[in-house]
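User: what does the whole thing look like in 3D?
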Amino acid sequence: MKKLFALVFDLSYVEIKWLDDTAVQTIISGSTLTNNNREAAAYNNSTELDMYADFELFVKFDTTAPSAGDRVAELFILPTVDGTNFPEGGDGTVGDDLDPQQVLKIGVFESRDPSTSTEERIVLSGIPLPPRDARYVIKNISGQTMNASWTLKAKPYKLQSV
Amino acid sequence: MAKIKRLDSSVVTLMDTELNSLGSLASTQSITAFDNSDTDFYGDIELVVPYGLRPDVGPHSDIFIKPSVDGVNYPGSGSVIPQGALYIGTIQNLRDTNGKVLRAVLPRVSIPAGLIKFWIKNLTNTSYISSGNTLKIRPNRFQIEA
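Assistant: Here's the predicted 3D structure for the full assembly of 308 residues, as structure tokens:
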């Protein structure tokens, strides 16, 4: 009866929403990246424990730009399991200079307005984050050289109940 | 307002000696079941194989999950391939260099509550080395931080 009363007269409820309380993270500040090569860096989510992130590739190209609609870069996330070691693949800094396992590829950046003079912002949204340290690998598949000004940034976020 | 975040659990070894000298085309399953009594949602599963002989690039190891429904028994045996619905992923060889460790991860594998065994088939065209191979899991779930 008490529960029925609460259902009828207590209209309070809980909302679950996004919580955008983690600052934008610069994962990689690029250097010139030639076609078919990789650049990687670590980002540790063990403190904020965010659920997802939106990733932004900010890029222009040297000499020649790819065509609009071309896929220009792949993003891999390589989570550590033991807290120390990372899966194979990446930029040669950790592990071998090889493509990571395809199952670790979480998205492909597709250019809409490629240029040699102005950087373009390309975003992958709603990517699940591992709750610990991981390496983030960008592979240039544009067929052209990415200018040294390129960056990979992440906007992590979690949920909240109010 | 309460924050809803991820919650990481500790790493657990699923298989080690079971993988010793696992031959090409051979399969095995975990001797001890993984007890998901923490009722984690997901697991990152890591296979480490320090190959002694040079594997080919491309061949792989298939991994299956075998949950116990009654808490005692598991589907199939170590030598029989589980049904496709229990398949969780493939780990490919990335290189053909002698004596190097393959360390590969299947991320965000959905895991059920209760007891689970894991099953692996070596399709790499070469045997695993006689020791030092491991299959581990790092489970995780969500938490509400008041």
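In plain terms: Chain A touches chain B at residues 16, 19, 21, 45-46, 48-51, 77-79, 81-83, 85-89, 95-96, 98-104, 128-132, 158-162 (CB under 8 Å). Chain A is about 5% helix and 40% strand.
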